[in-house]
Amino acid sequence: MFSRRNFLWGSSAAALVALRPDARAQQGAPMASPGSVPPAIAALPDLSGQARPFTNDERLARIERARQLMVENKVDAIILSNNATSSVYFANIRFGGSERFWALVIPAKAKPFVVCPAFEEDRARELLESGPFGKDTEILTWQEDENPFALTVKGLKDRGIAAGTVGLDENMKFIFADSLAKAGPGLHFVSALPVTAGCRMIKDQHELDCIALACRATLLVYRAVYQSLQEGMMTRDVRRLIQAGYQKVGFEGEASLNIGEFTASPHGSIQPQTIREGTILMLDDGCSVEGYTSDITRTFVLGKATDKMKSVFDVVKKAQSAALAAAKPGVALASVDAAARRVIVDAGYGPGFKYFTHRVGHGMGMDMHEWSYLVKNNMFGWELNPALRPNMVFSDEPGVYIRCEFGVRLEDDMHVTENGAELFTPQSPSLEDPFGNVE
C-alpha cells in the first residue's frame, strides 16, 4: 500500500497465540480460535458502496484550474513523469516507475501530450482512453536507442514553447530533470509545485467526502481490532486482523502496531513484539478511498493504565485540542504547531522537540503526506508566510515519547472550514476506552 510505515512484521512462528483472556474478552468479546475471524471483525459493515468515483468532468475542471495557476505563475507547461500522483489527479493515469521516461505534459495554452517508449504505445492509449483526454491525445514515442528528453522538448516547441518556463513534478528523478535541462537549454525549468500543490492542497466537497469515508472506515477497523486483541498476540497476528478488517469494509488499508517501549519511537520498530496486559499499544496508519487517504493513530492499554500513562494521555489530548482550536483560515501554519507544543512543554515535556519529537501535522489528500506542513519553517512550502486556507486537510497528531518507557500519540484528521477547523473523527476518550461510542 501507500504507507510510510510499511514495516516488516514479526517472526515466522504460529499465529494467534492466546495465553489468556484480556479485558475485552472478560467484558463479553468471544475469544478467537486459530484461523478464525473474530466476531468484531466479522460484524464490520461494507462501506465500499458509499464511495463515488471521480468523473472526467471533475478532472477537466482540475486541468482548467491548473492552467489558470500556470498563467498566474508565468509557467508555460508542466511535466509529470512516471509515478507522479498528480498525473492521477489530473488524468487518472499512473504510468509506473522505471528507468524509462514517461511523461504527461500539460501546456497552459495548448493540448496535452504524452511521451512514452514505443513498445508501450498501446498501453498508453489504453490508459488514456477512459480519462479526460481520451483517445485523441497525441502520443510521442521513442525507441530504446533514442533520446526521450529531446522528444519532449520537441513536443513543447511544436506547441509554441521553444523558450519560457516549464514546471517539473517535484518527485521527478534527478536524471530526468537534468536530461530535460540539457535537451532544452532555451527553457527555464522550475518546480511545478505552485500548480500541482496549488490545485491539490485545496479540496472540493467530493475529495472531503472521500477522506471522511476513509477516516470512518479506519476508525471502525481499529475498534474491531481492539475488541479482538488478546494477550500473547504478536504484531504479525494483529496485521492479519487489520487486513481482514479492511477487506470487510471494502477498502485497501493497513496499520502498524507498536507495543510498550517501542511506542516511544514515533514510527515504531521492525522488532517482533508481543502484547502484554498493562502495556501501551499504538495503532497507526489508514486506508484509501478513491485514491484519498486517512491517517489515524490510537494509543491504548490492555487492562489498567498507570497514573503516569493517564497523565501523559491527558496532556496529549489537550495538545490535540489546542491545535484544532488554533487552526483557522489566515492563521500561520507554524502557530498550529506552536499551540500544541506549548501545552506539552508547559506540562513538563520540553523544551522544544525533546519529548514531542515531530511536527503536529502534515497536509493530506491523495498522498498520505502532502503540502502544507504544520510547523515552523514549513519544509516544502514555496510561499512566503504560508497560512491556512479553507478546505485544506491536515493530520492533528501531537505526541509525547518517553524513551525506554512508552509513547502516546493521538492522531485524527481535520479540515479547515470557513471559520475554523473540524476533525473527521471523534477524539479518543481515554487509554482504557479508546473508541467510546464510535458509529
Give structural attributes.
439 residues; alpha+beta; Creatine Amidinohydrolase; Creatine Amidinohydrolase, Chain A, domain 1; 2 domains; six-stranded mixed sheet; four-stranded antiparallel sheet; 33% helix; 19% strand; disordered N terminus; Pept_M24; aminopeptidase activity; protease; TAT_signal
Describe the structure.
The structure is a single chain. This protein is an alpha+beta fold. It folds into two domains: 23-36 and 204-423, Alpha-Beta Complex (Creatine Amidinohydrolase), CATH 3.90.230.10; 56-200, Creatinase/prolidase N-terminal domain (Creatine Amidinohydrolase, Chain A, domain 1), CATH 3.40.350. The protein is 33% helix and 19% strand. It is built from twelve helices and 17 strands. The strands form five sheets. It has a six-stranded mixed β-sheet, sandwiched between helices. Strands 7, 8, 9 and 10 form a four-stranded antiparallel β-sheet that branches. Strands 13-16-17 form a three-stranded antiparallel β-sheet, covered by helices on one side. The longest helix is centred in the middle third of the chain and has 24 residues, at 205-228. Mean pLDDT is 90; it is low at 1-34.
